[in-house]
Amino acid sequence: MMRLFVALLAVCCHSCSASLTGFIFNQKLDHFTAGNNRTFPQRYWVVDDHWNKSSSAPVLLYLGLAAPFNGGMASYGIFGPALIEHSALGVGIENRYYGRSLAEDMLKLENLQYLTFEQSLEDTKAIQDAIKKNYSIPNLKWITFGASYSGMKSVIHRVTMPDRVFAAFGSSAPVNFQYDMPNYLGHVGEVIRDDQRGGSQTCYDNVREAFAIVDSYLNSNQLDVLRTDFNICSSSNATDDKEKFAIARYLSGLIADVNQYSFSNPAINTYAGICRPFTRPGVQPYDVLKKMLADSSPETCATISYQALLDDLNKWSNGINDWEEYDKDSGGRSWGFEICNNMGFNVYCNTTKGCPMSNFASQLGQSAMCQDAFGISDQQMRANSAKFLKTYGGANPLTTRLLLTHGAVDCGYPYEMNTTVENKEIYSFTTAYVGHVVDLNPATGYEPVALYETRKAVAQVLQKWVQDAKTAGSSQTYLSSVTIVFLVFFYSLY
Ligand SMILES: *[C@@H]1O[C@H](CO)[C@@H](O)[C@H](O)[C@H]1NC(C)=O
Ligand SMILES: *[C@@H]1O[C@H](CO)[C@@H](O)[C@H](O)[C@H]1NC(C)=O
Ligand SMILES: *[C@@H]1O[C@H](CO)[C@@H](O)[C@H](O)[C@H]1NC(C)=O
Ligand SMILES: *[C@@H]1O[C@H](CO)[C@@H](O)[C@H](O)[C@H]1NC(C)=O
Ligand SMILES: *[C@@H]1O[C@H](CO)[C@@H](O)[C@H](O)[C@H]1NC(C)=O
Ligand SMILES: *[C@@H]1O[C@H](CO)[C@@H](O)[C@H](O)[C@H]1NC(C)=O
């Protein structure tokens, strides 16, 4: 499940009036080797429409996704309103290796070594220093924001550079992703079984029944039947477990990926939408699955094979030779590398415990992909995961001032940090019945009351931190007030 949990935050700018200024930072490719002076263009954005410099409000920094980012953060829920409420300066940074923040040869295997958390944290420092200097704000505090992958990065920023990051917000931040994480897909089973969330035992049983048929075809090497039933055009080796994995992953995604889309409309319980057809009397569950596929995909048949999965990961491995074509990409190669190298996580079903979907969506596929695309062995993945959890703390990050929000129907929820520790100002808010990064949607009148309550709780914590940051930021009063007076004067010349 390579793409699960990357929320492609839709940039709907209908509610956003802020003007966005984009810049390119000449970023060092390798921050750690003296003498390596190579740079790449990194994109960042500044929103200063609401900024009142003399208010001393902290700078709010939105960290880009594991995908192209276009700096539209002022229209996001929580972030956009906080900019306005606190008259703050807003900054957004696109992650190295995503979108246009890279050079044409950086996706070659030998250059992926610079795609690490450590390098990316140094990127933030460099851009932060440039902004502090340009706007003459040496003493303003900074609060980082992010969602999903970048929510996790936000937490990591606070953990690793507390002197530069005053506090961190993360929506659906999977800080505790593991090499072994059967509860990711397992959580789907819990949700579709839960009548509070639009599921039911019958729904669960019928989904299981549909996939039992899928699995019986996979087990008996009858991949052709599945190809016909689910409009898959590629043919591949019917006895190869990796091909079975590719098909199992595709069909399981029909159910498992749903939580990703709840972002677009939190008013609709998408799991209820899945369970309705599966619980209609007199229908065959396998036929419902077939119909779901037919309804969700275009007329043309789909290319589903292990090779196709690898092709996605290997795209641009010889360098980017067509930027227009590249711009249509969602960053699959970089993201795949981060999974294998930086986090070493493996999403699969625990076949002993029972998978809600296909038992062939096992750990084999992910491990094989890491090996075949990047030469990263299963053993290395496990070591990478252990290092990631040890370095950044997993579910127990050694830090203070974290604000984490979760949607309880999200597959990643079991791997998020769900405890509040008052005396460290670590707050965790779970909203029942919503999915992944839903609170980053702009608030709407029709959203669940629980989500409205979460937004209120978040705003209260931010309010306090902004006050604390102002106090902390103005403790070096002499220098900052002199600078401020000077700049107010300077601006008045325009
Ligand atoms: C790299 O930058 C340093 C400091 O600016 C400079 O002294 C050095 O000569 C540069 N090295 C190369 C290979 O350009
Ligand atoms: C900006 O902040 C200062 C200090 O808090 C305040 O006195 C001033 O009224 C604010 N300006 C605006 C336009 O809100
Ligand atoms: C630097 O600050 C000025 C305002 O003083 C602003 O107009 C400009 O866009 C800023 N440049 C960057 C690169 O942030
Ligand atoms: C099909 O896959 C099996 C299992 O990996 C392998 O032993 C066999 O050689 C493959 N057959 C072909 C024709 O590639
Ligand atoms: C898989 O499930 C079995 C049975 O519940 C359990 O004993 C085992 O620890 C699980 N494996 C993992 C990796 O969670
Ligand atoms: C909170 O997370 C821990 C693991 O980090 C898990 O064992 C526990 O069940 C979770 N609690 C809730 C209410 O989800």
Question: Could you name the key traits of this structure?
Answer:
494 residues, 17 helices, single chain, binds 2-acetamido-2-deoxy-beta-D-glucopyranose, serine-type exopeptidase activity, 2 domains, hydrolase, alpha/beta, 10% strand, Rossmann fold
Question: Would you kindly provide a written description of the structure presented here, covering whatever features stand out?
Answer:
Helix content is 42%, strand content 10%. It is of the alpha/beta class. It has 2 domains: 2-176 and 398-479, Alpha/Beta hydrolase fold, catalytic domain (Rossmann fold, 3-Layer(aba) Sandwich); 182-388, no CATH class. Helix 3 (149-160) links the parallel strand 5 and strand 6 (167-171). The site of one 2-acetamido-2-deoxy-beta-D-glucopyranose has 5 residues, from loops.
